[in-house]
Design a protein that fits this description.
Mean pLDDT: 86
Number of helices: 10
CATH architecture of the largest domain: 3-Layer(aba) Sandwich
Strand content: 5-15%
Structural class: alpha/beta
Shape: globular
CATH superfamily of the largest domain: Response regulator
Largest sheet: 6 strands, parallel
Distance between the termini: 34 Å
Radius of gyration: 17 Å
Helix content: 40-55%
CATH topology of the largest domain: Rossmann fold
Number of domains: 2
CATH class of the largest domain: Alpha Beta
Order of helices and strands: EHEHEHEHEHEHHHHH
């Protein structure tokens, strides 16, 4: 677990950005180390500061949030990206995860909930606002024409089921008597075989496979 999460907040609306900074500042384990109002400035800041998490708006002049997400995730893959937006467009949600985002959160979220999302992605997990998760699952269902599970080993399928149950790598390793780094490698293989970018997409696929819906 990351003891002090270092965050950069990116939004072209100063009042909203300052509100997010103030809200996160009330958490003892989260430190905002920088602010930016554009994609290029955000990328430069992430390169320089290497934060644990970036909070990023979708609608910005110049590079939008999707372009910025793609560039940051490519150049600084250790930094987790949280899309914080007012857009509940389902295609944008999927595009954000394909670009490398680890969470998609609507701006109506409370400060306490946002802090918890920051902690979640800093620890390697993913998050989608619950009201959008079902729509994301339906979109993924339409896109999957071939059984995506056919290439998984029995161990990988077991690990995927545990991911779907909300277990973290450490918990899975303890349950299977395997090293956490072994679980991390398996998770990477699972994501590649399922052709998804994040644990949340894998978990949603697992839920679909179990329910058949």
């Amino acid at each position: 677990m990351v003891e002090n999460v270092r965050v950069v907040v990116v939004d072209d609306h100063p009042l909203f950005r300052q509100g997010v900074v103030h809200s996160l500042g009330t958490a003892d384990d989260i430190t905002v180390i920088g602010e930016a109002d554009s994609g290029p400035d955000a990328l430069a800041m992430v390169r320089d500061q290497l934060p644990d998490v970036v909070l990023l708006d979708i609608n910005m002049p110049g590079w939008n949030g999707l372009v910025t997400t793609e560039k940051i995730s490519f150049e600084c893959p250790a930094t987790a990206i949280v899309i914080l937006t007012s857009s509940d467009d389902k295609d944008t949600l999927l595009d954000a995860f394909k670009a490398g985002a680890k969470a998609y959160v609507l701006k109506g979220v409370s400060g306490q909930e946002l802090a918890q999302v920051v902690r979640t992605v800093a620890n390697g997990d993913a998050y989608v606002t619950p009201s959008l998760a079902a729509h994301m699952l339906q979109s993924m269902k339409r896109q999957q024409c071939v059984d995506p599970f056919r290439d998984l080993t029995s161990r990988e399928y077991q690990i995927l089921s545990m991911i779907g149950a909300g277990m973290k790598n450490r918990e899975i390793g303890e349950a299977l008597a395997l090293a956490e780094k072994t679980i991390k490698r398996s998770v990477t293989n699972i994501l590649q075989k399922l052709q998804v970018r994040s644990r949340v997409e894998a978990a949603l696929l697992a839920a679909k496979h179990v329910t058949g819906k």
